[in-house]
Hints:
The chain is of the alpha/beta class. The protein has helices at about 15-30, 50-55, 85-90, 100-105, 110-120, 135-140, 140-155, 185-200, 205-210, 220-225, 245-250, and strands at about 5-10, 40-45, 60-65, 95, 125-130, 165-170, 210-215, 235. Strands 1-2-3-4-5-6-7-8 form an 8-stranded parallel β-barrel, surrounded by 5 helices. Helix 1 (about 15-30) packs across helix 11, helix 5 (about 110-120) packs across helix 7 and helix 10 (about 220-225) packs parallel to helix 11 (about 245-250). The protein is globular, with a radius of gyration of 17 Å. It starts with a strand and ends with a helix.
Amino acid sequence: MRKKIVAGNWKMNLTSVQSEDLVAGISEKLKNFDSNGKRIIVAPTFVNLVPVINCEDRDTAIEVAAQNMHQASSGAYTGEIAANMLQTIGVPNVILGHSERRAYFGETDTLLAEKVEVALEHNMQIIFCFGEELEDRKAGKHFDVVESQLKNALFQLPDSAWKDIVLAYEPVWAIGTGETASPEQAQEMHEFIRKTIALAYGNAIADEVSILYGGSVKPANAKEIFSKPDVDGGLIGGASLKADDFFAIIDAM
Ligand code: PGA
């Protein structure tokens, strides 16, 4: 049975004290909550990973993820962070391919394929993000774009790798814009994604992979989106920065 997951992408927000406060606030809310096997993940900035991991008030069921990593194992890459640096401080998950990394830092499918391989070599689990831009959708190319993003970055992987991959479909036009894909649009795309994986890897792998939706998920719309059969949770940006809102989204799953 594939897992339900709610992951909070804190992006470039919060100081270390604020990060500790937020994880403590979410933990407080989770005290009398039966998460029922659902995974809850937060992704602070690099410098706030250790403070969040070590925060005494963190419910240890809240997993931590990095927002990115470099593909090289070490070397002259000023300002970058390698997979083993994350692994050795106890970060088991990494977000790769976020649309902001693609748009502002020029990350391509080819580069992402490399990062994916390196993360897997370090036994990390990957939340792999992808999604079409508004022009793609207007031109009716959204399925083609998503299919090529998946094929180019992930379809070189062996079957065994898929247990460590979580997919996050995030239409770029819905990220941080307040405009959400309708639950029907999300379901339509998630179903397509699962079929595309089934064609390449078979039904067993396609049925097991969790596919998250991301893009302006809020307490008010989470329940309807999560009710769709191929939506296994969400990757949450803005609404993950407040304990109340993030908990309401977890509760909606
Ligand atoms: P948003 O961001 O929830 O603020 O739209 C989602 C994301 O970027 O992962």
